[in-house]
């Protein structure tokens, strides 16, 4: 291997490690220490300290008086840029807030954009419920998420077939649908009832219910979703179904009446 090629590989590995450190600092909410990060990420202490010093110098992390690390202003700025670009319209944000206030459970809105459903905004719920790695901008594992299945079900069947042709469906949890034929059957059921359910398919211990909203042409534009712990999903499913479908219906009505304009970032 030539020296330039070796150098490029070294730089890429270093960048990847630095990004992993930044992600871990963000996830720790101000409690991260160099020792903890080193152990969590499998890095040598010296390497971890070097990466932290680099991120600190660039403003991507800050060192708190306690010696712990938190996200810095440069990283926060990246997040603001992402939210400005992919965030929902004010009208959709209001509908989401109303939906959240009914249950105080994790609620989010996603937008369909060029073959990808992107999580645009979410509101946390009671307790510390987490839904896998979901965050603003997330687009992965479309076969395992209720928010995605609710939109996929109303796309042309040939489009859905093309999207998943040759794609391996990862088993995110033991409950994830990993068979293409089974997924097609599931989408047909979603289409008949008008909403999608994820029973611990994306995140263990978490169930989600989602309903799509449509533009004036009848094409799905996005979806509203509520996530709840599996332990209380059954008792709340009927009320969740009604509320989520009402939220989606409100957005559809606004779109079709011309009172809600979906930006290109949302489509």
Count of domain modules: 2
Q: Give the helix tally.
A: 9
Overall structural class, as computed from helix and strand content, comes to alpha+beta
CATH class of the largest domain: Alpha Beta
Second CATH tier, the architecture of the largest domain = 2-Layer Sandwich
Strand element count: 7
Radius of gyration: 21 Å
- What fraction of the residues are assigned to beta strands by DSSP? 15-25%
Give the uncertain stretches in residue-range form: 1-8, 263-267
Integer average pLDDT: 86
GO molecular function, one term: DNA-binding transcription factor activity
Pfam families: HTH_IclR, IclR_C
Keywords: DNA-binding, Transcription, Transcription regulation
Domain IclR-ED: 53-267
How is this structure best described in words?
The protein has helices spanning 3-28, 34-41, 45-57, 73-86, 90-103, 146-152, 157-164, 180-193, 230-257; strands at 61-63, 69-71, 106-113, 116-123, 196-199, 206-214, 220-229. Strand 6 and strand 7 (220-229) form a beta hairpin. The protein has two domains: 3-78, Winged helix-like DNA-binding domain superfamily/Winged helix DNA-binding domain (Arc Repressor Mutant, subunit A, Orthogonal Bundle); 87-266, GAF domain (Beta-Lactamase, 2-Layer Sandwich). Helix 1 packs across helix 3, helix 2 crosses helix 3 and helix 5 packs antiparallel against helix 9 (230-257). The strands form two sheets. The chain has a five-stranded antiparallel β-sheet, sandwiched between helices. It has a two-stranded antiparallel sheet with strand order 1-2. By secondary structure, the protein is an alpha+beta fold. The protein starts with a helix and ends in a 10-residue tail after the last helix.
